[in-house]
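Purpose: get a first structural picture of the assembly so the mutagenesis plan has something to point at.
Setup: two entries, given in the order below. No constraints added.
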Amino acid sequence: MKYRPIIAIADENNEDIVNDYLIQLNEESLSSLDAKTHRLFIQKAFDLLNVTPLNKLQDYTELTILINGEERTKRYEIIKPLGVMPIYELRYAMNENEHLRFTFFPFSYKEIESYIFVKVFKKTLIPPVNETNKMRDLTYQMFLKVLKNPKLYLEGEE
Amino acid sequence: MRKPPKNLLNTSDLVAKHPELNENLHGLGSLYGKIIFACRMEQGLTQKELAGKALIGLKTITRAEGGFENLGTTTYNAIFRALGLSTAGVAELMYQMTREQMDSASEHGVLV
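Result (structure tokens, whole complex):
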């Protein structure tokens, strides 16, 4: 079993899109059971991603959380490659209409393989909104930047 | 100045808002759950198939993976045995996970 750190970096505008979204969801979870459920499923997906190879999560997988003493399980394909290597998305359906997507890429630095998260966005069926290709391409641009200067992006210094 | 990277496995903000989640997210049950999930995936088993191998109910497997705290030693032993893990093997995995978590956090300059 190999441990892979899960890291979020600021995007091309130096904005902490992923971390800020999670903090906002933490805040909403104080007054919304749905938000708390979403937050726990997302955290569970991060937790399992850090001990499971990517290819094992591209098939139907069960994710279980405990919330207020009860367990809830979802079974779906947690990870999907986005056609431009090495960009992937981590998937989570908030409900039938809203589908949350996090884009990320695996990256090796100082002999440690990590997953670097860059963007999070919502796909909706009604109205039909799908920014996947745009987010994938922006994430790929960040991958190239990290490749060029990993110390700056992964340690926060030149 | 670039914003520093963030460790997405750090749940301190979430636990600060929901202290009752501390055991669930950071307790022994959570660690066992991670090991069971990782080994199950490695062996390509569904939760139902693992339950069959361990001769326990599916609900018990979902609880174990969910980090449920109130499962007995006998239950965990049955699951670990079904996954081919000895007590020493589980202890080794727990040590390895904790060690690697600390090492990688310091290498990346992000706090756990």
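Residues 6-155 of chain A form one domain.
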